[in-house]
Amino acid sequence: MDKIKGGWIGKAIGCTYGGPTEFKYCGTMINDNIEIPWYDGYLKHTILNAPGLYDDIYMDLTFVDVFEKKGLDADVTDFAQAFAYAEYPLCEANQQARYNIMHGIMPPASGHWLNNPHADDIDFQIEADYAGLMSPGMPNAATYYTDSIGHIMCYGDGWYGGVYIAAMYSLAFISDDIEFIVTEALKTIPEESKYYKCMSDVISWHKKYPDNWEITWALCQKNWSYDIGCTRAVRHEFDIDALINSAYVIIGLLYGQGDFEKTIDIATRCGQDSDCNPSTAGGILGTMLGYSSIPDKWMAGASEVEDIKFIYTDISLNDVYKMSFNQALQVISRNEGSVGDQDVTIHYTSPKAVRLEQSFANLWPTDVRKINKPIGSVGEISFHGKGIAIHHLMYSHDNDYTAQVEIVIDQVVCETVDLPTDNNKRRQEVLYKYDLEEGDHTVLLRWTNPKDIASIDITRAVIYN
Question: Which of 6, 15, 266, 348 could pair with 252 as two cysteines, CB 3.0-4.6 Å apart?
């Protein structure tokens, strides 16, 4: 229980600490001369006044809650429905998955890269803590509980982000050696994957430059800082890919050397999704240390927030401590362990690699076109390649209005896309198509029911070959 509590509170503390920097430093580190605040009462102040910051916690709680209500054998449809029809706002892979589910594309198809341009994004990585915390010392059980849920919104590297994080949480119950946890958990990832190669590079660079995390950060930027799926991020300093953000998590863990403050500070100063990355690192280290061993500086005021319900949920930290604990006992019993009145026996097995899968196989973004025009002014888009994704922005003063856009590829109408005013029900790309025959193609976007109270702007087109 001490470690489960340490995992959840460590996650909340890391998220709070990195919150003010989130995506304000893209492609650049946060220098030491930039002060990041922390003071007694800061955790409570943030949870009460910026509750939307904790998306990576209330998303996690969705899955914990379904396990609590439906049991360990809950169907993936239970998780998908709870996730898709929740009140909270979403973006990236999560929002596309929500749109897919609302339109009858259920998991695992909802997270597959052919149906989700954001399949490799960070989304599942920041939501997979539940799987490790319910599987203490059982990394293969942890990865089992990432499979169906992780494929609701992600695939390939996006799924691997959650697999790796869950395995590190699981191992943090049985080892206080952070290098062992980071290295051993990587055995859950197929060696042929990009994700494995990137994490392996970070581990090697840490050994070569053990006293300078900034060198490892710079090598990550040079070798791994490219996003090929998210249309806003391709050839842009903004990078929401699981690959680079997972690298920042383990930079924080390795160079933090078991020190809570150093760990979340370095994970934050790597930039990009710099609330979620220290949140993940803080959760893993909090699990390793245990609730009772997180330094007082960071726990000041923690007891004041543990009964506060997270926004969009009816669950507090005290609630989820108990839920994860009870679920962990069930998972232990199911995996050749035993649960007694005063102790448990965990059957440990060495981590095994999950299956190989890679998004955007044999595709690369060969052209990015900045359009930034109203949809009616775009005209026909000609390109040579095998795929295209087009990002849009839609505004409307009528909450009940749904714009309809006809997609014409090579003079053939292939679909009509609904773009409701409600962001929670709309996809972010007006068009994505990755399985065309290689060659010359044309795309035309027709707004078939325009209204003066609404506008649709086409921002970017990414061409693939």
Answer: 266
